Amino acid sequence: MIKGIVIGFILAIAIAVGCVFYYFSAGMAPVATADPPMPFEKKLANMALDAHIDKQHIPSSPVSADEANFLAGADVYKQHCASCHGLPGQPPVDYVTTMFPTPPQLFRGKGVTDDPASETYWKAANGIRLSGMPSFKTKLSDTQLWQVSQLLAHANEITEPVKRVLTPDSPASASAPAPPTTSPAR
């Protein structure tokens, strides 16, 4: 009796592994950005990401959550993050909607204000595999990564000066009329 149960269990596992292998090797798995996600894809990816970050034991931020660091973080964010993750009050740029998974717009909805700064720091420093999110640990200093993380953790309470840094560059200089030229008096 027990021998039959064990054999049945092993056979069920072998069949399940064979089905998964066939699903991928036969080209049935969605790989195009226009394809619908695989069953449980988002849940499994988020579960793995959360577990990996929890396992890392990231220390508390050495950067304080103050105006000076928010301003510095806003400048870094605008240069390195805004093209994918957006700016406050601005619609996402067109190419963002073609990415899969679509990058979260960090100043819309709850963004990442409910995440600890340490989690955002880890994601910015290490990137997220198969998502398009690159690692910035070789591009930004540790202080800059923490400043951006603090800014995003407190995005719902940023001040007007920080919001001004996060506004898109105005094309005023390109559309403004040229100053009148005067010819030198003769």
Question: What are the defining features of this structure?
Answer:
single chain, elongated, 2 domains, mainly alpha, Cytochrome Bc1 Complex, Chain D, domain 2, disordered C terminus, about 190 residues
SSE order and pairing:
Blueprint: H1 2-25, H2 41-56, H3 67-80, H4 82-85, H5 117-126, H6 142-153, H7 160-165, H8 172-175
Structure, described:
This protein has 186 residues and is mainly alpha-helical. It has two domains: 30 residues; 128 residues, Cytochrome Bc1 Complex, Chain D, domain 2 (Orthogonal Bundle), CATH 1.10.760. It is 48% helix and 0% strand. It is elongated. The C terminus is likely disordered.
Q: Return the CATH architecture of the largest domain.
A: Orthogonal Bundle
Helix content: 40-55%
Strand residues, percent = under 5%
Give the strand tally: 0
- At the fourth level of CATH, the homologous superfamily of the largest domain is Cytochrome c-like domain
| Count of individual domains | 2
Task: Determine the structural class based on helices, strands and strand pairing.
Answer: mainly alpha
Shape: elongated
* Fold-level CATH name of the largest domain: Cytochrome Bc1 Complex, Chain D, domain 2
CATH classification, class level of the largest domain: Mainly Alpha
The separation of the N and C termini measures 114 Å
Average predicted confidence as pLDDT? 87
Number of helices: 8
SSE order: HHHHHHHH
